[in-house]
TrEMBL record:
Organism of provenance: Myceligenerans crystallogenes
Name of the protein: Phosphotransferase
InterPro entries to which the protein is assigned, alphabetical: AGP_Transferase, Aminoglycoside_PTrfase, Kinase-like_dom_sf
Aminoglycoside phosphotransferase domain residues: 40-213
Length: 249
């Protein structure tokens, strides 16, 4: 009998692995609805859906290994990163999914102010680091042409084998949105791999906006991570991203 492995678990959802099957348990059926619809529409490799019995969605494991993990250097080759960039480009050039996006400039601006105020009050980072990242983050708050984005394109969600993308997982945040957001989330904490990613992605990427999303994402996610048992101050994670960004002119 296969062991049951807890991949991730917090108050909103949990993912378990049993052999080659992943069981995603989510109290909000809308997340699974989006995931199933997005995987059907995305022109990139995605996991096979085995069955769905709310609140559980069962999907098959994809072959290969993740590009890396946050907080550790990626051992994937430059060619693998370029292949990931090409896959993201195919997604961004696909027709928009027929539901609305959650990335709204006004809402993001309000969230940025709220989370920066919390970080300052809590004293978890020097005020100057927060101030500098707030300044950088505002560059992302500009009009963008919506594209089909993954919406949670963490480095652990892209699998490769022999320098080819074999699967992209966790599509519950997919929606129309800013292309630079996906590129930023995939390279968060891995700035040194941005050139490789963009080699495959091709023209049109805005490095200043990608950098802005690194700051915006790290500022706005930190409180949620702390409150759900994660450590944004682990080496190479969100606080290190903010310190690095804040040290740049």
């Amino acid at each position: 009998m296969d062991d049951v492995q807890v991949v991730v678990a917090h108050s909103q959802r949990a993912t378990l692995r049993v052999g080659d099957v992943f069981l995603k348990v989510d109290g909000d059926p809308a997340h699974a609805d989006v995931e199933v619809r997005a995987m059907a529409l995305a022109p990139v490799p995605t996991p096979a859906i085995l069955w769905r019995e709310p609140p559980v969605l069962a999907i098959a494991a994809v072959p290969g290994t993740a590009l890396g993990v946050l907080g550790e250097p990626s051992t994937a080759s430059s060619a693998a990163w370029a292949a990931a960039g090409a896959a993201v480009r195919r997604l961004h050039e696909a027709p928009l999914p027929p539901w609305s996006g959650r990335l709204n400039i006004d809402d993001l601006a309000a969230e940025l102010e709220r989370e920066c105020a919390w970080l300052l009050a809590d004293g978890v980072l020097p005020a100057e680091v927060i101030r500098r990242n707030h300044e950088i983050a505002r560059t992302a708050l500009r009009p963008w042409k919506p594209v089909f984005i993954h919406g949670d394109l963490q480095i652990t969600h892209v699998f490769v084998d022999d320098d080819e993308v074999t699967g992209i997982i966790d599509w519950s945040e997919a929606a129309p949105g800013d292309a630079m957001f996906d590129l930023a989330i995939l390279t968060l904490g891995h700035e040194e791999r941005l050139d490789d990613l963009l080699e495959g992605y091709g023209p049109g990427a805005d490095r200043d906006v990608i950098r802005a999303w690194w700051s915006l994402r790290s500022l706005t996610a930190s409180r949620w991570l702390i409150e759900h048992g994660f450590d944004p101050d682990a080496p190479g994670c969100e606080f290190d991203v903010l310190r690095s960004q804040g040290s740049q002119g």
